[in-house]
UniProtKB/TrEMBL annotation:
The chain crosses the membrane at residues 59-79, 91-110, 116-136, 148-169, 189-210, 237-263, 275-293, 305-326. This is Iron complex transport system permease protein. The keyword Membrane applies. It holds the Pfam family FecCD. The keyword Membrane applies. GO terms for cellular component: plasma membrane. It comes from Mesorhizobium australicum. One of its GO terms (biological process) is siderophore-iron import into cell. Keywords: Cell membrane, Membrane, Transmembrane, Transmembrane helix, Transport. InterPro entries: ABC_BtuC-like, ABC_transptr_permease_BtuC. It comes from the Bacteria. Belongs to the binding-protein-dependent transport system permease family. FecCD subfamily. One of its GO terms (molecular function) is transmembrane transporter activity. It is a multi-pass membrane protein.
Amino acid sequence: MIRPMIPIVSVLIVLVPVLVLASLAYGDQAVSFGDLVSALTRPAGTNPQMEMIVLDLRLPRVLLALLVGAALAVAGAIAQAVMRNPLAEPGVLGVNAGAALAATILIVALDNAPVHLLPWAGFVGAAAMAAAIYLLSWRNGGTSSLRIILIGIGLSALTGAATTFLTAFGEIGDVQRAMIWLAGSVYHADWPAVQGLALWLVAPLALTWMSSRELDLIRFGDQAARSLGQRVDSIRALMIVLCTLLSGAAVAAAGLIGFIGLVAPHMARRLVGPAHARLIPVSALIGAILVMAADLAGRTVIAPVQLPAGIVTALIGAPFFGYLLWGRRHVAN
């Protein structure tokens, strides 16, 4: 499995700059190849309008999409290993529902709340939900994947109802702002957001990759992992923290972009196998490619109208989810 990984990763690595260049060149206003090269290499002598389009508007947007996609994909790989469920993704831990409720409260329920608090509200909501689910699933000195999933589904439904209640009775303008955020998009990207997210993701991504062996063990089940010397409850808690740090930061930066955490790890597993030392970096590459491609498609397919990246990923992810369910229809309960 190691030898085929080299050409696969090479293709993925090549796709990343290709998508970056395409995202910089295409949009409401096309940028010629010469203007693009000039803006990237000699910004001082570039047409000021082209410089603004390439460096101030599109480049932060595509880099934010890259980071968000990588974070969501790795978080999905963690969730599928910890839950031992191929249909798991960060939403199972309640991250999406908690972030959505917190953001909706900030926008709809609080008058004149500062806009810069929205990412922090989304992250705090995601972290609070993950913590609540883990604590409520603790029984007899430990947790189980099944309890985490069931409690996550229950609390997600509860917070979803609260979010719906707020949007049903809120001011129209505030509700529209909340819906735009909930749709998931990187249209508002700027350099501080890119730098902040990049710095935030370094440690969780590194720790996840360093924990590849632990993820390989825990996906075989609690008893097997314990027999091999793993402290299952501690590792599960650590993995949930890492998943929350990754997905919570991505949600805080771009809103709810769904299905990347489901699709990317499955694609990576088909390409390089289940070993997490290879699965994690390949999942990150695929996730980055998917979000960048979704954002590019959303900007160009029906231009000048822009579709949020979250809508495009849902159009891809929903059929893929159905495909996974169909493929497992004969699996015993």
